Amino acid sequence: MNQTTVTHNTDRHPPRHVAIIMDGNGRWAKAHGLDRTEGHVAGVETVHNITRQASDMGIKYLSLYTFSTENWNRPQKEVDALMHLVALVIEKETPGLIENNVKVSIFGDTERLPDITRQSLLRSMEQTSHCTGLTLSLALSYLGTDKRNAEYCRQSSRRQNFARTDNRTDHSGKPLNF
């Protein structure tokens, strides 16, 4: 997992939109002697923490570039595990998202997703549609060229009031796993 330190300048308002390209979970797992899918499972906790922090900071939109169309070329076992993980996690997390006033949206070619994954996401979108806090947008089966949009959003947010460094700890010295 890419590891990054992000600090927020409290003298300013938080950015309206933060976009994150989720990349490196499999490499992180391999570096730690684990199966690639275990890296994706570990990334779920990072997503949970990022979503909670973004909501607490008053960020309105958090876009997570989760699974690009290029990812369909991974080994079928890994793709199946990822799609199963998305379905399980969204089902498990939706009640907490509602409690925290987080609205779920998805974009990308959702027709390519397995039915169980797509249905879980659609249920979550429906159940959170009344929420007015953070909007959590999940990019699934999106074209790789869309990564440029995420990079633009990341750079835009960074210029507004975020400082990003590439060391591997947060402001308290605790490692971050992005």
Structural summary, described in words:
It is a single chain. The chain has 5 helices and 6 strands, in the order ββααβαβαβαβ. The chain has helices spanning 25-31, 36-57, 76-99, 115-128, 147-161, and strands spanning 5-8, 17-21, 61-68, 103-107, 135-142, 162-165. The strands form 2 sheets. The protein has a 4-stranded parallel sheet. A two-stranded antiparallel ribbon has the order 1-6. Strand 4 (103-107), helix 4 (115-128) and strand 5 form a beta-alpha-beta unit. It is globular and about 40 Å long. Residues 1-5 and 156-178 have low confidence and may be disordered.
Secondary structure blueprint with pairings:
Blueprint: E1 5-8, E2 17-21, H1 25-31, H2 36-57, E3 61-68, H3 76-99, E4 103-107, H4 115-128, E5 135-142, H5 147-161, E6 162-165
Parallel strand pairs: 2-3, 3-5, 4-5
Antiparallel strand pairs: 1-6
Helix pairs in contact: 1-2, 2-3, 3-4
- Average pLDDT rating: 80
SSE pattern:
EEHHEHEHEHE
N-to-C span: 5 Å
User: Could you tell me the strand content as a percent range?
Assistant: 15-25%
Shape label: globular
- The strand count comes to 6
Strand order of the main beta sheet, please?
2-3-5-4
From the alpha carbons, calculate the radius of gyration and give it in angstroms: 16 Å
For this entry, give a set of tags.
4-stranded parallel beta sheet; two-stranded antiparallel sheet; disordered N terminus; 5 helices; 178 residues; 46% helix; disordered C terminus; alpha/beta
